[in-house]
Design goal:
Structural class: alpha+beta
Shape: elongated
Low-confidence stretches: none
Strand content: 25-35%
Mean pLDDT: 83
Helix content: 25-40%
Strand order of the largest sheet: 1-2-3-4
């Protein structure tokens, strides 16, 4: 995978970008980012911002479970 770009959100892998005809195709690494699978981005920064927005839109408990943050409330 020459020239692949790793995309991270809060220090965790969200996916990888593969160059394709002057753009970048997103390949998701984890479930929260499956919605971005196969999408094309003009720059790695655009893909990173899209992944961060997607995670921010998750309900709080889902985002906490994904991040495994110690400050998150316990799940019922």
């Amino acid at each position: 995978m020459a020239n692949a770009v790793l995309i991270e959100v809060d220090g965790d892998a969200a996916g990888v970008l593969l160059p394709e005809r002057g753009r970048f195709r997103f390949r998701a690494a984890r479930r929260p980012f499956y919605a971005l699978e196969g999408k094309l981005f003009g720059t790695p920064w655009q893909a990173e911002q899209a992944a961060a927005r997607l995670l921010a839109e998750l309900p709080n408990q889902c985002a906490c479970a994904w991040r495994r943050a110690p400050s998150c409330p316990p799940t019922p």
